[in-house]
Amino acid sequence: MKTSGKVWLVGAGPGDISLLTLKAQHCIHQADVIIYDRLVNPKILEWAAKDCTLINVGKNPGNHCVPQHEINALLLHHARTHHNIVRLKGGDPYVFGRGAEEVECLVEERIPFEVVPGISSAIGGLACAGIPVTHRDLASGFHVVTGHTREGNQQQDWRQLARLHGTLVIVMGIANLPFICEELLMGGKSPNTPAAIVMSATRENQRRLTCTLGTLLSKAQEANIAPPALIVVGEVVSLSDRLSFIPEVTQTRYCESCS
Ligand code: SAH
Questions:
Q1: Three-state secondary structure call for residue 7
Q2: Start and end of every Tetrapyrrole methylase domain (predicted)?
Q3: Which residues line ligand 1 (CB under 6 A)?
Q4: How far is the CA of 130 from the centre of ligand 1 (A)?
Q5: Residue 37 is a catalytic residue
Q6: Structural domain ending residue among the three candidates 85, 116, 147
Q7: How far is it, in rounded angstroms, from Cα 18 to Cα 3?
Q8: How far apart are the first and last CA of the chain?
């Protein structure tokens, strides 16, 4: 029987390399091939072995470098020719990362795989910007939704989402921000609901814009929003000044101790 390597679907966390799991770090050390995305901090790739093949399949907004079927084909090709293949994705690989589609393709071809979860920007990224997704008095739950749905797929029902309690976290939503704000307001969400945009969470250039749902669009237009960015709507945002902090172990220091 033909043997094949194993594919590790690894979450690279939200950006700060010290937020990677030990297992993810181990996978990267052992990898013969790493196929990585745009949101992966390139410093992580410095942990790879010298002879490891690094393949960038990063998709920039509006500039789709490598189509999904080619990424799948790359995974299958390398799985048949190498031992350890790491498919490295930003955040958690199963949170809007098409990770499941890639694993389905491995399952079909009977390629062994393992999933290494990562800290999602939608939870951990917000925490590092002073925003707890839940709070006993302010939010008894949270919803993480995409602001960008595949063409032909059913669009989000923002008016329905407006009626839910708890924190609303929107990934990939900046391009659609005018529509999202309008629909949430039309759905009955109060314009006074605290809201924020968190850019480059956990990275050195992390920025947070806090306002209310009613002022979010105009503030965002003034603020020159740069991707990647999360939109958060909910009472927990009101805690963000009080709960924000400067991380003591910075990416740079962590890197120095590693090398
Ligand atoms: N799997 C990833 C999400 C992939 S979808 C995760 O679990 O975090 C990509 C979207 O995630 C981006 O468009 C942005 O909305 C959000 N995102 C990812 N990393 C981010 C970061 N460091 N700061 C802010 N938003 C981020």
A1: strand
A2: 6-216
A3: 14-15, 39, 89-92, 95-97, 120-122, 125, 171-172, 198-203, 227-230
A4: 17
A5: yes
A6: 116
A7: 35
A8: 41
Ligand 1 atom closest to the CA of 15, numbered from 1? 22
Which residue has 């101790």 as its token pair? 257
**Residue ranges making up the domain that contains 39:** 6-116
Q: Are residues 97 and 125 in the same domain?
A: no
Here the tokens at position 235 are 């009472």
Catalytic residue among 16, 37, 89, 92: 37
C-alpha span between 57 and 14 (Å, rounded): 18
In angstroms, the CA 239 to CA 242 distance is 5
**76 phi, psi to nearest 5 deg:** -65, -45
DSSP 135: B
59 is catalytic: yes
Beta strands at 142-146 and 167-171: parallel, antiparallel or unpaired = parallel
Task: Pick the catalytic residue from 6, 23, 43, 59.
Answer: 59
pLDDT digit of tens for each residue in the chain (259 aa)? Answer: 456 899 999 999 999 999 999 999 999 999 999 999 999 999 999 999 999 999 999 855 556 668 999 999 999 999 999 999 999 999 999 999 899 999 999 999 999 999 999 999 999 999 999 999 999 999 999 999 999 877 777 789 999 999 999 999 999 999 999 999 999 999 999 999 999 999 999 999 999 999 999 999 999 999 989 999 999 999 999 999 999 999 887 655 444 434 3
> What are the residues facing 13 on neighbouring strands?
91
Token pair 């389905």 is at which residue?
Answer: 104
